[in-house]
Queue: 2 jobs
Job 1
Amino acid sequence: MTEPFRVAIAGLGTVGAGVVEILQSNAAQVAMRAGRPVEIVAVNARDKAKERGVDVSAYEWVDDAAGLAGVEADAVIELIGGSDGPAYDLVKAALAGGKHVVSANKALLAHHGTELATLAEGHGVSLNYEAAVAGGIPIIKAAREGLAGNKMSAVYGILNGTSNFILTKMRESGRDFDDVLKEAQDLGYAEADPTFDVDGVDAGHKICLLASIAFGVQPEFNKVRMRGIREVTSADINFAAEFGYRIKLLGIAKDRDGLINITVEPCLVPEATPLGTVENAYNAVVVKGDFVDTPLLTGLGAGRGPTASAVVADIIDLARGLHVPTFGIPAKALKKPDFIDPATIKQHYYLRLTVTDQPGVIADVSAILRDHDASIESMVQHGRDPGQPVSVVLVTHDVKRGDIEAACEEISKLKSCLEKPYLMRIEHQL
Amino acid sequence: MTEPFRVAIAGLGTVGAGVVEILQSNAAQVAMRAGRPVEIVAVNARDKAKERGVDVSAYEWVDDAAGLAGVEADAVIELIGGSDGPAYDLVKAALAGGKHVVSANKALLAHHGTELATLAEGHGVSLNYEAAVAGGIPIIKAAREGLAGNKMSAVYGILNGTSNFILTKMRESGRDFDDVLKEAQDLGYAEADPTFDVDGVDAGHKICLLASIAFGVQPEFNKVRMRGIREVTSADINFAAEFGYRIKLLGIAKDRDGLINITVEPCLVPEATPLGTVENAYNAVVVKGDFVDTPLLTGLGAGRGPTASAVVADIIDLARGLHVPTFGIPAKALKKPDFIDPATIKQHYYLRLTVTDQPGVIADVSAILRDHDASIESMVQHGRDPGQPVSVVLVTHDVKRGDIEAACEEISKLKSCLEKPYLMRIEHQL
């Protein structure tokens, strides 16, 4: 096995250029670990003339992404992005042509994972995507291989670095979401259109893939319920701190006796825990297995180096001859997931109300909560300002989501309730 | 590949029984992931009659561990333990006989790793040992495969659960080492002879193996410098907290331009970080790579479930046909490590002195430190008790270990210095 392993790279943006850089600068080490040299044979990008900080002149330039599928190569590296269009077409063509594929494309896998896994298996090739989820953390490998002896009942974590960066800055500076988002955009940490990051879509793609591996189910992105961090206020962050929590945008997938729930939402996690201390652009993933307990993996979730590192690890696996089914088991064995009715799930909740500071308000709210089986663990109001709007925060004991949402609905109709109540899950596992 | 993958298990203690339990209770899942059933064909232990909580009556019983090498099996699972004796003999015989080996034996690998890796490669078989280092954390796989694109310059972490449990209890209760150790022994968390755990030997075995994978060098356990936690006092823990640190027994391996240093010693780590918040019996490992930055993996380091989970993951890899060289590169490519002179390494230090509370002591100490190029970042003394012994703690800026040790030597000769000064590294990386 000393023939070079030949790769063709589609997409030379931040990650693509990083992959070229690793394969060039760590070539000897990569060859030693792969058991043979890894050779770039062709590249493709939109703009040939663009300065990328790496020299690609030695490789065949292919103008059309789809054309890479026809190049003489062992694997195609898809770093174009997008759930459809050129990325989808190229990956399908490459797999159908008997080429392995390495992709960093979470959207593609979350939308078309079952089809692509089936295609790969039908042609005896592998589809690797370590870089698609938390680049700096080898979580796909951990879940597909390292924890393969376990029945996994949950996987969850901080899966979007931009959101975590914003929440961290909000906490540190006391500033509000819009203000910090703008700074993050100016610094290049957030994109001009931040929707995918701050509204939970990016984390949704990732948790969807992790759930498929953990539970052996087909990825169904349209069933992932997502809520982002736009409504989190700096007041929430302060209240949470008072109760000993930090607010994190968590992707959470749980398998309760075959009934699955996959969500992305801002949650309160205890601050003095490994998960609670994951700040800035760092990601973290926890897997719960029946024997291994709850390992947690932390690292940079995005960026040139970590993402390219993940792509190269996938390439080295292929060059070494290591092949694992796309979602850890044969594609035809992936079950169609049954989803739980989220209204039935019990959880502790954080509830922020904006009410008029006047006698009787708390009595009204408490009565509504009682009528919906929600019992109050603690309550805090900052300051007093009779007749004026104040924030009141409640933390509940375990209550069904359906009940607490119905209670919120009712509370919002109180004359003294000035804004829609804001609800967040509390996650205690770590 | 639907023929069963046949394993023979040597050692049915806590871990061995756990492996049997997983292979029995998760059999369908394991078969799905492995691509074929995993079948136990033979077992061995010292006492056939012992109650183990699992039924092994269906498997061939082999009285003599060495006899397992002769059984018709694809892999031998060595869970006997010990760097020499039956474990060593069995592993050698199994590899020489063309059988794969899965082992949880850190001592064996740390002492004989190069020989066994060479033997395995010579016979075209694999030697897997995920369970040998931090059972609940797939760190061997992460280092050998997941981060394979990186030049790794450091790997370090909390590698001994017993020590971390003791340090955590000391911090929480304010009690001293001996007292907490006794409780840990009564609870079964520490062994009657706790030497391997609390004196750093166990962590030494583990960091030795991680260094070999990270840096591509032969394991040389006799070059690992180890110091345990027996001398850590509850006063140290309090002082450390005052400076914002927690005390952790860290295994640390660093590669400075080809010069390697491997140590186990109690260190101060910042408390509000993912590593600082790893408490009780949890382990944590950080890898520093040139592209991936510093991923951190946390999980239970020992115990039946996590360790057995790691063993089964290794078995599934073999059943799937995934084979990786023992230390990530061909055995013959492993370099003989060059070690750095530890005296030349610069670091921040924590220094606890027990001195007579009298004028001039601090002036004397400061002068000695100044004469050894050690500059003081902060200093604290609790209470005043003229003429009586008091603890004074100093935190230094970067200073060479040789210099600070020479300074300690000189300080210990002061008439006012009542005990040997106690020195700990401060690790800021995470």
Job 2
Amino acid sequence: MHSFDELLKIFENRLNKENFSHEPKELYAPIDYTLALGGKRIRPVLTLMACDMFGGDINDALPQAIAIELFHNFTLIHDDIMDNAPIRRGKQTVYKKWSSNIAILSGDTLFALAYQYAQIADKSILANVLSVFNRTAIEVCEGQQYDLNFETRNDVSVEEYIHMIKLKTAVLFGASLKIGAIIGGANNEDADKLYNFALNIGLGFQLKDDLLDTYGDESIFGKKTGGDIISNKKTFLYLKALELADEENNRKLTSLFNNDSYSEDEKINSVKSIFSNLKIDEITEKEIDTYFEAGIIDLNSLDLKEDVKAELYDLAFKMIHRDV
Amino acid sequence: MHSFDELLKIFENRLNKENFSHEPKELYAPIDYTLALGGKRIRPVLTLMACDMFGGDINDALPQAIAIELFHNFTLIHDDIMDNAPIRRGKQTVYKKWSSNIAILSGDTLFALAYQYAQIADKSILANVLSVFNRTAIEVCEGQQYDLNFETRNDVSVEEYIHMIKLKTAVLFGASLKIGAIIGGANNEDADKLYNFALNIGLGFQLKDDLLDTYGDESIFGKKTGGDIISNKKTFLYLKALELADEENNRKLTSLFNNDSYSEDEKINSVKSIFSNLKIDEITEKEIDTYFEAGIIDLNSLDLKEDVKAELYDLAFKMIHRDV
């Protein structure tokens, strides 16, 4: 078994060898730029790791790992337009640096490039791999649409939120592992177990995101906390607080999120004070643990040696128990 | 051999049976809306026709025909955002009726749905079909980028223009036929001949578009002519005129296309008068004929019975010699 760091290095080496600098440069420069921004590369490493776990040759999974990473970056480019996000990974987003049109079209191209890599698989598994890839691509779009819908809705339930982040975030972790497992020679049942494992870890991962955005240690987190509160983002923390708050606090919280007259610090402090009275941080931690444990049950149920599963366990642990 | 009208009916029946109304409705309503707007459906019929020509079962080509039509509609939805186009097929464009965000995301979803259909092919040909589909998708994006680039450039050559419309328009006609031919059992050489045939017909088709926009008979064309001139579109007509004009007319034409102080009628009449003095309409007709004839040479070189090729010949003839 290769370690995460080994797989990451193998992936980065291969990605760097791929050439995305074609003509017209207006189309490909934003693709190069986005891929060079890096990111954690968790998804492609998951693909290689799953392939490795089932005794496959990780070289066979590299095209799919690239496909997954390209797809992920395509969604970021388009999401940043829709979310008016100026900064991604510490740099200007594509639509800010160039234009919306360039971001739409280079995103489309990146999506098509992703498929170009996704189809590099043995005849015997190609249809299976692509059907996971396709279904996931569609679900990720659906998740983003729900997320956009939630911006203008005041009656979003925690359950709806979990469904949204499952589609927007978790299924791509699931697909990353499942596709790697298929290439590695796993049977359908085992590939599905890994998929379900990743869904749970993915949900925990996103809830951790929500938690860190409000409760992260700024010196470690690397940016100011409270961003989600400032932008009225209906995260798990907010929705759970609404669910648990009494009528007065419910009204207060809703008003804080629908009123732009507060100063940033005032708003963050008021919201956090309601969150803290309701122990939202602890509740979220507990929820994250629940997803982590549910995931681990699926991982443990795989009939593989413990040391083969250890690397993935460690990665999941780090995804959930991170400070950044 | 089935006729165009028979194949169109078969295609429409099948498309109508497909269900694109899923949740969230904000994402799928624009897809339903776009597909219901119709259009000529030339591309999917080409796929069925090519399959038919080589003795294939057209049912096997229906998923690919749908894939091609979905892909085409995806490009329209995104192009309309980039081109600020308010009207498509007589109705509001998706971005106008809903929003840019909805148009970006429902377009992305339509692209993913296209791939879902594209992959429904026999194992033995799937990789071949998908590599045509992928390459074409990327080329169409490149074509659109060149088109956007041309808007702000004053030194576009006729040759560059032809390269742009080849990518933006002609390759998808090529892919439509080639994929149908592969499914129908054609060998690579024959599939490529059909591809080249379609490239030439596609170029002629686009030049005819340019010609009709300026010289169409408004009572048949169904809309006001001169739209390309009003919007300063660097069509074949304009670029060829710049190439052929003397210094004075060249300056005049450039000034007309870079100056918003003229009234619409004044501008159209002045530009058309320069075009007419240079016989741009005749030159364009001749160019269209040249592409048509080049295409027909490829079609004739196919070792198929004449009556098998007749339906495609007729379709190409109609694509080129249309009034609408």
